[in-house]
Design a protein that fits this description.
mainly beta, OB fold (Dihydrolipoamide Acetyltransferase, E2P), 6-stranded antiparallel β-sheet, 5-stranded antiparallel β-sheet
Length: 188
């Protein structure tokens, strides 16, 4: 069993009967009293972030997680279907386990994180940026590039985001899946 000396950023541990990943940690050795490790942990099941202090040398239970490449197939109600890219095995996931489901399109490559011991899917992560086509937006004026004014637009996945005035219907744009914001226009 591991101790607090093994704590590092990105480590997955079992804490309070839940799986947590270490976001931040700091070994503190005060001049008076025992040393301790201050951590910030994020739950892999709920997404909640909490802070916890472990006494130095305390036992922790490290869990193994694996990232595997999958391809998005389709959605049926609130269930999403994915296929492993090498074994062609299909799995289903609920919408709350996907980081940006509104930007998923057929054939999209994603990474699904599994708890290695139980083979349970924990989360689905899209790439940081995806290229999507604008299916509808109000027409902009030529030369409207001097200001940072934005207009609403509908994307091919059905998602709505704000885009600059110079982007028009039919253009392909790069969208940041972490923030849900327009990044840049893509030339074909």
């Amino acid at each position: 069993m591991a101790t607090t000396a093994d704590i590092r950023k990105g480590l997955c541990i079992d804490f309070n009967n839940d799986l947590f990943v270490v976001i931040e940690f700091q070994h503190v050795n005060p001049g008076k009293g025992a040393a301790f490790v201050r951590t910030k942990l994020k739950s892999l099941t709920t997404g909640k972030v909490l802070q916890n202090t472990f006494p130095s040398g305390a036992k922790i239970n490290i869990q193994r997680v694996e990232r595997r490449p999958y391809q998005y197939l389709y959605k049926d109600g609130v269930t999403y279907f994915f296929m492993h890219e090498e074994t062609y095995e299909q799995i289903t996931m609920e919408e709350e386990l996907i980081n940006a489901p509104q930007f998923l399109k057929d054939g999209q490559r994603v990474e699904i994180m599994f708890h290695a011991d139980t083979e349970t899917p924990l989360s689905c992560e899209l790439p940081s940026f995806v290229v999507l086509e604008v299916t509808y937006s109000e027409p902009g004026m030529k030369g409207d590039t001097a200001t940072n004014t934005l207009k609403p637009a509908q994307l091919e996945t059905g998602a709505s985001i704000n885009i600059p005035l110079f982007v028009s219907t039919g253009d392909k744009i790069k969208v940041d899946t972490r923030t849900g914001e327009y990044s840049e226009r893509v030339k074909e």
